[in-house]
Write a structure and sequence with these properties.
This protein has helices at residues 59-75, 83-98, 103-117, 128-136, 142-158; strands at 5-7, 27-33, 40-50. It is an alpha+beta fold and 171 residues long. Strand 2 (27-33) and strand 3 (40-50) form a beta hairpin.
Length: 171
């Protein structure tokens, strides 16, 4: 179905059939009752397929997942099915479920998205992110902060730990 807008009536009730099945970065099969008057459909059933719990184990993973979703939202038309975009996001979530993101992972996602949208391919010079920015008129604001957080995490991981140095040895 692509990107759709739904409302889940009664989702906050204690005995809701949606309890524990709707959250950020969840993969679920859904059934909806299409609206005749608007683009806001009614959610009728949810079957959770994958909660990707590893994404919630670190701020950096959550930040990367949010950025990837923002990029997908930029290039997705309402109610238009695009299986390749879904598969790309699904692969990214599987990666983030088990790994901390790095700049290479972000660039790979951007390159794949640029390839799918037809604005960049491997033989082209330049950054896929720039091609996406030109296509959509902007990139999500979260990109800059994500890359800063990745740089800080990489720098912290590479810094020597004085507690692990041999006694009497100082740098």
């Amino acid at each position: 179905m692509g990107c759709i807008q739904t409302m889940a009536k009664g989702a906050r009730r204690a005995k809701s059939p949606f309890a524990g099945k709707l959250d950020l970065f969840y993969e679920a099969e859904i059934q909806i009752a299409p609206s005749r008057k608007s683009t806001l459909h009614t959610l009728t059933e949810v079957v959770l397929r994958n909660a990707f719990p590893g994404i919630r184990t670190s701020y950096l993973r959550t930040q990367a997942a949010a950025y990837f979703v923002e990029l997908i939202e930029l290039c997705t038309e309402r109610d238009h099915c695009e299986p390749e975009l879904f598969e790309l996001l699904q692969r990214a979530f599987r990666y983030l479920d088990h790994n901390e993101p790095d700049a290479r992972a972000v660039r790979h996602f951007e390159a794949e998205l640029a390839r799918i949208t037809g604005v960049h391919h491997d033989a082209m010079k330049g950054e896929p992110a720039a091609a996406l920015g030109n296509l959509f008129g902007k990139l999500p604001l979260g990109r800059t902060q994500l890359l800063k957080t990745i740089r800080a995490a990489t720098t912290a991981a590479e810094a020597p730990n004085p507690k692990l140095q041999a006694p009497g040895k100082h740098q």
